[in-house]
Amino acid sequence: MKFFFRLYFTLVISLASIPVFCQPQLNVWQVAATNINPSHYYGVTVANGMIGIVSSPNPLRVQDVVLNGVYDNYQRGRVSNILKSFNHVNMNLDVDGYRISVKTISNYKQTLDMKNAALVTTFDVGDKVSVRHTMMALRHLPYTALSIVSISAKKDVSITPMSVIEAPDHLADVRNYYSEIDRPHVKIPLLTSVAKSPSGRHTVAASNSFIFSEPHGSEPQLIHEDWDYNMHLAKFHKKLKVGETYSFSIVSSAVSTAHYKDPHNEAERLSVYAMLEGTDRLLSRHEAEWEKLWKSDIIIEGDEQAQRDIRFALYHLYSFAREGTAYSLSPMGLSGLGYNGHVFWDTELWMYPPLLVMQPEMARSLLEYRFERLEAARQNAFSHGYKGAMFPWESSADGTEDTPLWALTGPFQHHITGCIGWAFWKYYQVTKDRNFLAERAYPVLKEVADFWASRVERKGPGRYEINNVIGANEWEENIDNNAFTNGMAITVLKYATQAATLLGIKPDPDWMLVANNIPILKFADGTTKENATYNGVDIKQADVNLLAFPLDVITSREQIEKDLKYYEPRMAKDGPAMGNSVLATLYARLGNMDKAHELFIKSYKANEVPPFGVLAETAGGTNPYFATGAGGMLQSVIFGFGGLSITDQGIQQAKAKLPSKWRSLELKGVGVSRMNYSVK
Asked: Is 140 contained in some domain?
């Protein structure tokens, strides 16, 4: 017995002396891709609210460059499409006379640095050189990108870096230019391309320039090559000794006639400006702007994976929007050409609320987009026989309807008009900006209220019906008295009345009459009915449950629980991501944290695609980046686990609970006062 005890004791001591190799700590500011498979690759985007640059699996190259606000009719549906512009940040690299590719490099890694909004790519070319390539869309220069390249020699080697501008096939009348501005103190090379959009509506231009560290007169001599109509480049040769590192930068600017009357000259001016600013100043100012943005952050203790995922979502919304503009957000942001770059309800109901709480002035830009298109919405209402303003389901450049004809949503998905009015009022609730209320919010709310007052069919008390619509659940078409549509109409009619009263304007009494007589239908057992003919079939996404959040039309705990119990199992497994985030928020508010956390994870995790984990619209989908889903996921954190609400008293926090794995949650830099809210 003593022997066995002695043996056991010896084993315990021996095992205790063996080092324990813990899983390395997750970097919550970085998203890295090391297993890069070009056939199964979904890029990550660096963007600044005006230009979006989507990464490629091929080293030193990009997949897409998207300019915000530039639309033309050139693809499907006989409607406007966001314009894919020049790939003006592409590069080639020859090492000892051989062109590198994904097949000839090793140790290939791409890392998104969210803190500084930079994509860092590193790789080796055999035993010859190591390369580090850093790319960013400069936050302080909305039309300009910066690439920084460092090449370290492992042996004596010859390198030929190339800056390349390529035109996608749909651009017409492509013209390539190369020039050098020679001054006593500097030489500025300019590689420039100009083209027409497919219909000729716009002129687009892109220009770039090298930044060298050598004194003027000692910098590399550039060689310009114009290969064919859609590609040209500028290159230089350099010999490196073993152990030597050579660094240079490229600034690249792109604009169109949607932004400037003379895009050719403006693109070159912007590149000249950036080149003369120099790499250090550009980098410093870019990082300073992102440091300001990250003063509004979400911090979690106890769950590093959730922390990184939440910050990844926040990074994308910050990247896709920009303060001081009148540009909005499409479901895919600036990550590509998905949904034609059009603006839907996704903006106001899903992406806008997190921005409103975390970055109010960035959120205001989204509202300015709608305000500038108010007259088009008035014309749309007139065309359909209604009063007020009827906003289009899909909007792009001028605010007219851009839904393809085959999709019935355009003429019938009227709830978007309510969503827009709702968003304007929410901005006032957060900011208490009376000038905004008078000059922006009320003019929109009045037109929205007039629309709903003319849209209802008055069939007697309690029967001011809204018929022949498509609700949030788009699988049920041309139905009557949709729950969400009716609930949103009630909400904005009340908001319009409230806004008028605050401004000392006599509200139209018909608005409240209509609001008080729009029905919210129920089944016999009291469950809220999705529409007049709904019979329990699966639904695309949350509809009825939106009445509890974010509308607060339904506030009874019993009713909320009843509706959750009925509709959660009927939510389609292949529906879009944001539906589960609504359910997660509601369960969190009810105090059921296990269920809330389960649905929070379900709202995005299955939608991640390789190699960065950017979000597709649906589980197993392939169309990233789905910014709508990111907005929904963030709402479940802010308004669910964080306990925040937007009320007439501003942003308020209710008592909240956290998932068991989370030790604490801090919502940092919230609202115009930059308040901090915590849950422990």
From this structure: yes
